[in-house]
Design a protein that fits this description.
The protein has 37 residues and is mainly alpha-helical. Helix content is 81%, strand content 0%.
Length: 37
Amino acid sequence: MKFKKKKVFHSPMKSEVIQKVLNGCLSKKLQVKLGGH
């Protein structure tokens, strides 16, 4: 996954959204690991 850091720095709102998305992906990966899939 490639995120354009330059655009993120220019718009804090986008960075917040990206952080939420990343947190969601990480939580899903953790759930999968705990689930044993």
